[in-house]
UniProtKB/TrEMBL annotation:
Keywords: Amino-acid biosynthesis, Arginine biosynthesis, ATP-binding, Cytoplasm, Kinase, Nucleotide-binding, Transferase. Catalyzes the ATP-dependent phosphorylation of N-acetyl-L-glutamate. Gene3D superfamilies: Acetylglutamate kinase-like (3.40.1160.10). Belongs to the acetylglutamate kinase family. ArgB subfamily. This is Acetylglutamate kinase. It catalyses: N-acetyl-L-glutamate + ATP = N-acetyl-L-glutamyl 5-phosphate + ADP. One of its GO terms (molecular function) is acetylglutamate kinase activity. Pathway: Amino-acid biosynthesis; L-arginine biosynthesis; N(2)-acetyl-L-ornithine from L-glutamate: step 2/4. It comes from Secundilactobacillus pentosiphilus. The record marks K7, K213 as: Transition state stabilizer. It holds the Pfam family AA_kinase. Residues 2-232 form the Aspartate/glutamate/uridylate kinase domain.
Length: 247
């Protein structure tokens, strides 16, 4: 699908500027399909703290018990997604909010139930329905999936964006975050190939949330996504991951 996917981390939502919306407008006018996948991790943690529900993360992944799952759905579908949709409307961009329960949009499976609880990865996307819905409007999709048995799963938003990009063979994937790219010695690494990742992890240059983000990005380029860009603004160069350095 001639599709551009942009993942917006929970931290990045409130920092979206006019250049971001202008870029969306240009893609839209050029006839490109655009899908935004939003996070909401910091917002989920904030509400958990307010409600005295402890947050447990393992390898950057939220351990999701029944109570945390209910709260995660509340925040993503009741807070972060409408906030983003309202912002798009304010900027005059036609958009539609989507989640796994709309026409079986995202199907998933448990990652490791004993370790993480209701955490999943995406195994299927209703491509036909999504393709139709993305005609003339920008899609805004939450990182939640449903198992074939109807269990909700919490999916890391980077993983969700990369999985959807992989399944739909999106041309470009942008992972917007709170840093200007992958940093080494305080400088942005402008270009990366998958083979660079293991030693950067080993040298502890890449840690925390950047690690699952890059692993997801590597899976996406292996599956045919032409380029994954990690940046703080759509208009900033950031770090571009491709299969080949000279590509
Ligand atoms: N080499 C690195 N370059 C940039 N950020 C890194 C690096 N290693 C670890 N990080 C951390 O990864 C974070 C981004 O990942 P994450 O917090 O999961 O973002 P988001 O919530 O936007 O998905 C950065 O804020 C930074 O703290
Ligand atoms: C399983 C898992 O960890 N899910 C994430 C989903 C939201 C997310 O990834 O949001 P950010 O991109 O803002 O971090 C979470 O519960 O925080």
């Amino acid at each position: 699908m001639n599709l551009i996917i942009v993942k917006i981390g929970g931290n990045a939502i409130s920092k979206l500027n006019s250049e971001f919306f202008e870029q969306l407008r240009q893609w839209h006018q050029a006839g490109k399909k655009v899908l935004l996948i939003h996070g909401g991790g910091p917002q989920i943690s904030q509400l958990s703290a307010k409600m005295h529900i402890p947050t447990h993360k393992k390898n950057g992944i939220r351990v999701t018990d029944e109570q945390t799952l209910a709260l995660t759905k509340m925040v993503l579908l009741g807070n972060t997604q409408p906030a983003l949709l309202m912002r798009l409307a304010h900027e005059g961009l036609a958009a539609i909010g989507l989640n796994a329960s709309d026409q079986q949009m995202l199907t998933g499976t448990y990652v490791d139930r004993a370790t993480y609880g209701a955490v999943g990865c995406i195994t299927g996307v209703n491509e036909l329905a999504l393709s139709k819905l993305l005609n003339g409007q920008i899609g805004v999709l939450a990182p939640l999936a449903l198992t074939p048995d109807g269990d909700w799963l919490n999916v890391n938003a980077d993983t969700a964006a990369a999985d959807v990009a992989r399944v739909l063979k999106a041309s470009q994937l942008y992972l917007l975050t709170d840093v200007p790219g992958v940093l080494k010695d305080g400088k942005v690494i402008s270009a990366m190939i998958p083979q660079d990742l293991p030693h950067l992890i080993e040298e502890k240059v890449i840690t925390d949330g950047m690690q699952p983000k890059l692993s997801a990005a590597v899976r996406a380029v292996h599956a045919g996504v032409q380029a994954v860009r990690i940046t703080d603004q759509l208009t900033h160069p950031g770090t571009t991951l491709k299969m080949e350095a000279n590509d």
